[in-house]
Amino acid sequence: MMEITEGSHAVAEAVRLCRPQVVSAYPITPQTHIVEALAEFVANCQLDAEYITVENELSALSACIGASAAGSRTYSATTSQGLALMFEVCFNVAGMRLPIIMSIANRALGAPLSIWNDMQDSISLRDAGWLQFYAEDNQEATDLHFIAYKVAEDPAVQLPAFVCFDGFILSHTYEPVDMISQEDVDRFLPKFDPAEKLDAKDPISFGMYATPEYYLEFRYEMDQAQKRAKEVIAKAGKEFGALFNRDYSALVEGYRLDDAETAIVAMGSVCGTVKDAIDELREAGKKVGLLKIRVFRPFPSEEIAQALSKVKRVAVLDKNISLGAKGATVIEVRDAMYGSTIPVKGYVLGLGGRDIRKKDIREIVSLCEKGIGDQFYGLRKELI
Amino acid sequence: MAEKKKTCDLFDCGHRACGGCGAALAARLVTQTAGTETIVVNSTGCMEVFSTPYPETAWKVPWIHSLFENASAVASGVEAALKKQGRKEKILIMAGDGATFDIGMITISGAFERGHDFTYICYDNEAYMNTGIQRSGATPYDASTTTSPAGTCSFGNKRPKKDMPAILAAHGAPYVATASIAYPADLRQKVEKAINTPGPCYVQVHAPCCTGWGFEADQTIAIAKLAIETGLWVNFEMVDGTVTKVKKVVRKPVEEYLTTQKRFRHLFKPKRQDAELATIQAIADRNAEKFALDIKLKKE
After folding, report:
1. Which pTM value belongs to this model?
2. In this predicted model, what pLDDT tens digit does every residue of A295-329 receive, in sequence order?
3. Which of A63, A71, A204 shows the shortest C-beta gap to B85?
4. Which of A250, A258, B56, B141 is the most exposed place for a label (fewest CB within 10 A)?
């Protein structure tokens, strides 16, 4: 059913339809509307879940560990400082192979304190072992929760997942969203039934420590699961598409890319702006296209190399920066294209909520054509 | 001839604890009492490490370890899941004093305030033993540890133990108790009460550590007893914030306890530190007054 709704509410509704038994979260801007909505659902018996109002984010995700290990489908949401406080818990969840789903309303990290959007938070946890999905709009943010649960709980994967959507830009924006029915969600997403759980009838030990004789193989198995996730995502995305007409089988998605000379690579809500800018550039005779990365972990290296094999140049937008190095996306895109002679230029922009407009995209295309890149874009010269 | 069958517990033999480990004894007594319908949440620390080197485990009940500071939050999640699934297992947290008094304090406060139904067992060996005997908020006054070493201008740990039972009682915990591995029947009784009391309950178990405190492995029980007999450890019970039971003693001077352990050696050698000993005796005297510890002997 199509409704005009706020991004956070659409996500909360999607989560409700996934029937988590335990929700545990802590308020933080701009994520709060999600957990407020879930609390209302529980208060009105629209969601049959235990809702744990923890004392901080570290405990929010820790409670999810206990609930998931005990065999319940589990959910949390956070952003920025909250995600940073969960740092060690995130590694722990993935290492214990618990398929917890967490929405991230992407936000910058302090200092200086900023409540506004960039992707530094989730990108900084790219090594934690979680699958990472990035939504372009609220429809995608909504649907990716169904996909995320299905993929994370698949025995071939058994890893947790972030569903990332841009704070404020998506979380607080009203857009039309087509919400699938409870019946349809139940058809797509089977009940959570893990092969192993904390159970007095069959006692097992979770979270033992590993000596150097075992640790390396644990990490290898997690990496293998990440790689297997590619196929599982493709399968789940295709099944979703067949049922509901929105296909998420591709980990990356091209827009007017087939004959493009300049390719822009981007993630998240900025893709909408990029598409509009591309339409205008095309009208002006410039062959520009977009490659949107929807899944950042597992990183779709082969898909990216393939999709960009025929362009003349690549401009990668990063709403994050590994200070002293480059944006995370450009580093990984370049690695994906290792051996190719196509120039790949990176642009760090939009940090801390700085707006990215169509004219900025046009400017970046023109910089890329001149071979200028690997720099911050949009700096206020008078401040530096 | 048939081999004599070893009797093993829910906390099984073959773990890697030091001989004479008070915490291992606590684990055995607690799990014996709790029984098979129990899920254990263990914080990082000695007990976690000596009981579960992958792929071996000493636990014959379901067991989970996540991190150092988050056992109470993990237990909150387990409890929520069991409730939703209509399951009846009891939840037991096993955590050391570092995990309880220090790094886990926020997590514990949150979980006790929310009122989850679990029993929290703190095995208190009065320092970070797993990392090599560093002081914690549970380390007693003047104990020498590797981060509070006695030296030419220091007598060791500068502060007395934090009063964890009072803090948790102030959270409205329905049952709070202290116990000692030297009194297993009392310990069992308290664990049983805690498990059968709905809501978050706390039992702090004095668990001497021969390696960290500096004594021979066969002295664990004797030293635990001396702690009580000198009034430096008080075994008591609090129901809804009121002290309902105290183990009374004919008190011995604190020196009888202190001289048994290397961590207090600097109070006697190279010279006797009378002022420090008086301060420690005063701690015991305050305990005696607060809990009415002393058994009054009839006058001749």
Report:
1. 0.97
2. 999 999 999 999 999 999 999 999 999 999 999 99
3. A71
4. A258
Give the distance from residue B263's alpha carbon to the nearest chain A alpha carbon, in angstroms: 30
Which tokens in the block code for residue B268? 């006697």
Same domain, A205 and A289: no
Return d(Cα A266, Cα A368) in angstroms, integer.
14
Chain B residue with the nearest C-alpha to that of A207: B65
Q: Are residues A264 and A203 in the same domain?
A: no
- Give me the domain span that covers residue A37: 2-244
Q: What secondary structure letter does DSSP report for B262?
A: G
Tokens, residue A294: 């929807």
> Do A231 and A358 fall within a single domain?
no
Classified as helix, coil or strand, A290 is strand
**Do A217 and A313 belong together in one domain?**
no
**Chain A residues with beta carbon closer than 8 angstroms to that of B76:** 24, 52, 54, 59, 62-63, 66
- Burial annotation B171-200 (CB, 10 A radius, 16+ → b, else e): bebbbbbbbbbbbbebbbbbbebbbebeeb
How confident is the model over B115-133, as pLDDT tens digits? 999 999 999 999 999 999 9
Q: Cβ contacts (< 8 Å) between A63 and chain B: which residues?
A: 73-74, 76-77, 80
Query: Which residue of chain B has the CA closest to A51?
Result: B80
- ipTM, two decimals, is 0.97
Q: How many domains does chain B have?
A: 1
Q: Which of A244, A274, A308 is the last residue of a domain?
A: A244
For the stretch B8-67, pLDDT in tens is: 789 999 999 999 999 999 999 999 999 999 999 999 999 999 999 999 999 999 999 999
Whether B67 contacts chain A with CB within 8 A: yes
Neighbouring-strand partners of residue A89: none
CA atoms within 13 A on the CB side of B46: 30
Q: Which residues of B touch A56 (CB under 8 A)?
A: 106, 110
Smallest Cα distance from B156 to chain A, Å: 33
The stretch B273-298 carries a mean pLDDT of 96
Q: Which helix (H) or strand (E) holds A50?
A: strand A50-53
Q: Is the pLDDT of residue B3 over 90?
A: no
A contacts of B48 (beta carbons < 8 Å): 209
Give the CA count within 13 Å in the CB-facing half-sphere of A335: 10
pLDDT, residue B39, reads: 98
Q: Are residues A18 and A59 in the same domain?
A: yes
CATH number of the domain encompassing residue B83: 3.40.50.970
Partner A contacted by B218 (CB < 8 A): no
**Structure token digits, residue B39:** 């899920």
The β-bridge relationship of strands B150-151 and B175-180 is: unpaired
3-state SS assignment for residue B124: strand
Q: How far is CA A60 from CA A11, A52, B117, in A?
A: 18, 8, 18
Q: Do the chains contact at B38 and A200, CB–CB below 8 Å? A: yes
